[in-house]
Every structure is written in C-alpha cells, then in structure tokens.
C-alpha cells in the first residue's frame, strides 16, 4: 500500500513546486508531475502512467481534484476506474477521501 502524488499545472509558465511540496509533506513516496492542459487526458502521459501503475490498496493523492480532472465527467471516470482498481483517492486541500462516507459524498455533490 503506497501513497502516490499527482501534480499538474495548465501552462508551461506555471510552477509545480508548491503542489509537489504539499504532496511530499502529506507523505507521497512518488510524485508524478506535468505541465499540461486539463481539458482531457490526452497529452497527460504522466497521469496515464500513474493510473496504469496503481495497485489495489494504493492511494492517489492530489492537492485539489481540479488538478486531476477539469470536467466532472472526466473526474467521474477516473474515480470509477480507481474504485474498480481498489485505489483510494485523497486531496490535501479538499475533503476528498474515498475511504470515508463524507469523502465520497463530497465527490457525489460535484
């Protein structure tokens, strides 16, 4: 059971440092980061690699869910896939934790 982080900024002139520092402080062992538009998963190779690498019992952590997905549909698809894999999703700056009823409820409200 490992804790993996994912950080993303939308443009090349933005900095990933703050997100990666927060994820490290939260205990992430490995952090994948990229500078890519969040309109879809196309062109987000680090996210795709991470999603394929995760195993049951692992946790994927982001600072906010908008770093993971920009559309509700994409977020729902990712959360569904993580649930099917037995992977937990957590966010450091939002009450998202798919291990808890409250965390699941927060995602359901989106």
From TrEMBL:
A Gene Ontology BP annotation from the UniProt entry: DNA integration
Membrane spanning stretches: none
Residues in coiled coil: none
Active-site feature positions: 10 (o-(5'-phospho-dna)-serine intermediate)
GO molecular function, one term: DNA binding
InterPro entries xref list: Recombinase_CS, Resolv_N, Resolvase-like_N_sf, SSR_resolvase
Residues in Resolvase/invertase-type recombinase catalytic domain copies: 2-110
Pfam family, one: Resolvase
Keywords carried by this UniProt record: DNA integration, DNA invertase, DNA recombination, DNA-binding
UniProt record similarity statement: Belongs to the site-specific recombinase resolvase family.
Function, in words: A DNA fragment of approximately 900 base pairs, adjacent to the fljB (H2) gene, which specifies the synthesis of phase-2 flagellin, can exist in either orientation with respect to fljB. The orientation of the inversion region controls expression of fljB. The hin gene occupies about two-thirds of the inversion region; it is required for the inversion of the fljB controlling region.
The name this protein goes by in its record: Recombinase family protein
Native source species: Salmonella enterica
């Amino acid at each position: 059971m490992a804790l993996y982080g994912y950080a993303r900024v939308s443009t090349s002139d933005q900095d990933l440092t703050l997100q990666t520092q927060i994820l490290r402080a939260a205990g992430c062992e490995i952090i994948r980061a990229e500078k890519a538009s969040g309109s879809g998963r196309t062109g987000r190779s680090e996210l795709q690699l991470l999603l394929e690498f995760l195993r049951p019992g692992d946790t994927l952590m982001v600072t906010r869910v908008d770093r993971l997905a920009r559309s509700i549909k994409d977020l729902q698809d990712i959360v569904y896939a993580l649930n099917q894999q037995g992977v937990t999703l957590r966010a450091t700056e939002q009450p998202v934790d798919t291990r808890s009823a409250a965390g699941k409820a927060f995602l359901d409200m989106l």
